[in-house]
Write a structure and sequence with these properties.
The chain is α/β, with parallel strands linked by helices. The chain has a domain at 7-228: Amidase signature (AS) enzymes. The protein has helices spanning 7-15, 21-39, 49-61, 104-111, 154-161, 178-184, 218-228, 272-287, 303-318, 336-347, 350-363, 368-389, 415-419, 426-431, 460-472, and strands at 42-45, 73-77, 115-120, 167-171, 187-190, 211-215, 258-262, 291-295, 395-399, 435-442, 448-454. The chain starts with 6 loop residues before the first helix and ends with a helix.
């Protein structure tokens, strides 16, 4: 079996009977058995994977039509619930949780007979930029095992980069698909907020959360998006917007498209090698016929502050349910207060506690107006800014991250340094726009660099076309 097959290559191989779905699944299972002990990407394996593969083989043998994701082995971030398969959210408080239902995006994959290999590691409740906050240990970057894979969808990125699956699903609240994609050298796609259903995602910050795709190519990401996008009666935020054949249209010409490169994304804190690489990306888009313009949008300097006020506020509300009474494991105590104190104190990790406390603070009497209300106003102004700019530009180009992957343990004692990893990615979540990270070569240490593109809400088509140009170049 050849390594690093794309979705399209797997589809062609299955239809041509070069290999069977069972053979492919067994190959990935051997890969996982060999590599996962060192990488810690998978937390739980799906015992039904081979049974699903066998059904796909029977359909192909019978001449039945199969869907674009049928027989494609994939992995799912452990904050997306899967019926009958353990879902921990990377937390001790949910260590033994087996959901009775599937997330909508999982249900759509199952209806196509996609092969779920298992659940992959992540920062606890998707809170982190390095995958070091998982209660089950950090995932290691497959390119440099002494370095982080990024977060919070670190396991999803490593599973793709190490060829432990064909593609994976993650979630993106402030860059949790795109940032690990950049660190691991794969493609990471965050759709428009509302493009995919959030039903079955264990909520972190509900106004920012969105399912996303990690894949080996831009076209693969487009193929998966076509299958998981669409409205959902179980999620009012999932909108009924026209779905395009993004994969089929990905090679359309980009000549005449205008791309903004904000100077705020090229200032202090950006690694010089990453800056040079992004300027190279701008040159490549220009050679393809797009027009890249350096712009000055001072409001972007507020993005990280906006995000790290609103996000913890929503976290404090969403995680109140995990108290050992309604949800989660419990630590015995003599009275109710001691029960709450010991259960949440012992079973939630330090980063989760930090964000709950921060969110409680910014929502508290006397501080709501000073922090949350101002951040919400600034968010609305940023959305207004981009609404105006989308009249002129089809996309925004930036680095995905200010540096390449840092060493495990390097930033664990400095939360602010860790949060700065999200400085470019949080913008797309604040304005609800789609974003994608495309591999942009490597630095002098052979560590991957990511190029990020954002487009107007619901215009994934424009973003994917530009991303495909960068990928080809």
């Amino acid at each position: 079996m050849r390594a690093n097959l794309t979705i399209e290559e797997v589809q062609n191989g299955l239809r041509a009977k070069e290999f069977s779905a069972v053979e492919l699944t067994q190959w990935y299972q051997r890969q996982i058995k060999e590599k996962n002990p060192h990488l810690n990407a998978y937390l739980t394996l799906n015992e039904e994977a081979l049974a699903t593969a066998s059904l796909v083989d029977k359909k192909i043998s019978a001449g039945a039509k199969i869907g674009p994701l049928s027989g494609i082995p994939m992995a799912i971030k452990d904050v997306i619930v899967t019926q009958g398969i353990r879902t921990t959210a990377g937390s001790k408080i949910l260590e033994n949780y087996i959901p009775p239902y599937d997330a909508t995006v999982v249900d759509k994959i199952k209806k196509q007979a996609g092969i779920i290999l298992g659940k992959v590691n992540c920062d606890e409740f998707a809170m982190g930029s390095s995958n070091e906050n998982s209660a089950f240990g950090p995932t290691r970057n497959s390119i440099a095992p002494d370095r982080v894979p990024g977060g919070s969808s670190g396991g999803s990125a490593v599973a793709v980069a190490a060829d432990l699956c064909t593609y994976s699903l993650g979630t993106d609240t402030g860059g949790s698909v795109r940032q690990p994609a950049a660190f691991c050298g794969v493609v990471g796609l965050k759709p428009t907020y509302g493009r995919c259903s959030r039903y079955g995602l264990i909520a972190m910050a509900s106004s920012f959360d969105q399912p996303g795709v990690l894949a080996k190519t831009v076209k693969d990401a487009a193929i998966v998006l076509e299958s998981i996008a669409g409205p959902d009666r179980l999620d009012s935020s999932a909108k009924d917007k026209p779905l395009k054949k993004w994969a089929a249209e990905i090679d359309q010409d980009v000549r005449g498209m205008r791309v903004a490169l904000p100077k705020q994304f090229l200032e202090e804190g950006l690694n010089t090698e990453v800056e040079k690489s992004v300027r190279l990306a701008a040159e490549k888009l220009t050679r393809a016929g797009a027009k890249v313009e350096l712009v000055d949008w001072p409001l972007l300097e507020m993005a990280l502050a906006i995000y790290y006020i609103i996000m913890p506020a929503e976290v404090s509300a969403n995680l109140a349910r995990f108290d050992g009474i309604r949800y989660g494991m419990t630590v015995g105590a003599e009275d109710l207060w001691s029960h709450y104190q010991q259960t949440r104190g012992q079973l939630l990790g330090p980063e989760v506690k930090r964000r709950i406390l921060t969110g409680t603070y910014v929502l508290s009497a006397g501080y709501y107006d000073a922090y949350y209300k101002k951040a919400d106003l600034a968010k609305k102004r940023m959305r207004q800014l981009f609404a105006q700019q989308w009249q002129k530009y089809q996309a925004v180009l930036s680095p995905t991250t200010p540096t390449t992957a840092f060493k495990i343990g390097e930033k664990t004692t400095d939360p602010m340094a860790m949060y700065l990893s999200d400085v470019y990615t949080v913008v797309a979540n604040i304005i609800g726009a789609p974003g994608i990270s495309v591999p942009g070569g490597t630095d002098s240490q052979k560590l991957p660099i990511g190029w990020q593109l954002m487009s107007a809400p619901w215009r994934e088509d424009q973003m994917l076309r530009l991303a495909a140009v960068l990928e080809k170049e």
